[in-house]
Design goal:
alpha/beta; Rossmann fold; 4-stranded antiparallel sheet; 6 helices; 12 strands; 26% helix; binds glutamine
């Protein structure tokens, strides 16, 4: 399995690079050999990846990354996009107070929020089949178009900025505001992405410490 970590030099501000390591580790528990491939923003995007990862970023880095990705088709791929990475998959977003055209993978728009949304976040995700916890830190407020499914409903925090829902799911493209890294905090989400990548259900792996940590965080706020 090829896990593609995109533009970590730009999209690495919030530690989301750890999502790749969690996927590789849990793939290994399933007997699946994997490699994590780091792609710089000056490199061509590989088209043979099994899972593509986008992380959070400062505004200027977010614009550079978005422009470098223009023309790459994410729509039929397994994608996890966090925060800035999530925002650039929409139709438009703001960076440095300026509106930018996004990659148009998810029908949504991100506008400046009334304040910056910073803190612990917990959502209930039917898509993953679990409550998910993380940490959010963003200025953008994301408005999903009618019919776009969120990743989950907000229990604590602001999520897309309205305090009602977080993220979006379109096919195998998953967006969220949860840092953590989100897959380290929520192993069920990592396993869902692995299942989407291999195309069939996988047996639940035995990683008791990861499960214990996830449950502890879910109960802590
Ligand atoms: N720069 C974007 C914002 O502030 C995304 C921030 C992030 O990725 N954490 O909304």
């Amino acid at each position: 399995m090829k896990i593609v970590r995109i533009h970590n030099e730009l999209l690495g501000t919030y530690g989301d690079r750890g999502n790749a390591d969690v996927l590789a580790y849990r793939a290994g528990l399933n007997g699946i050999t994997s490699t994590v491939v780091d792609v710089s923003y000056r490199d061509a995007m590989p088209t043979d990846g099994d899972i593509y990862l986008l992380g959070g970023a400062e505004d200027a880095a977010q614009v550079l990354s978005c422009e470098a990705l223009r023309g790459f088709d994410f729509s039929d791929r397994v994608v996890l996009a966090v925060c800035a990475g999530f925002q650039i998959l929409g139709n438009s977003y703001y960076a440095g107070g300026v509106k930018h055209v996004g990659l148009g993978v998810i029908d949504m728009e991100t506008v400046p929020g009334t304040s910056r949304f910073v803190g612990d976040i917990k959502i209930s995700s039917d898509v993953v089949g679990a409550d998910l916890t993380g940490f959010e830190n963003h200025g953008g407020k994301t408005n999903l178009a009618d019919g776009i499914t969120p990743l989950g409903g907000v229990i604590t925090g602001m999520g897309n900025g309205g305090g009602d829902v977080d993220g979006a799911v379109v096919g195998n493209v998953f967006g969220t505001y949860l840092h953590g890294p989100v897959l380290a905090r929520n192993p069920e989400f990592a396993d869902l992405l692995l299942e989407r990548a291999v195309g069939h259900p996988l047996p639940r792996v035995n990683d008791a410490l990861a499960d214990e940590y996830a449950q502890w965080r879910r109960a802590s706020f």
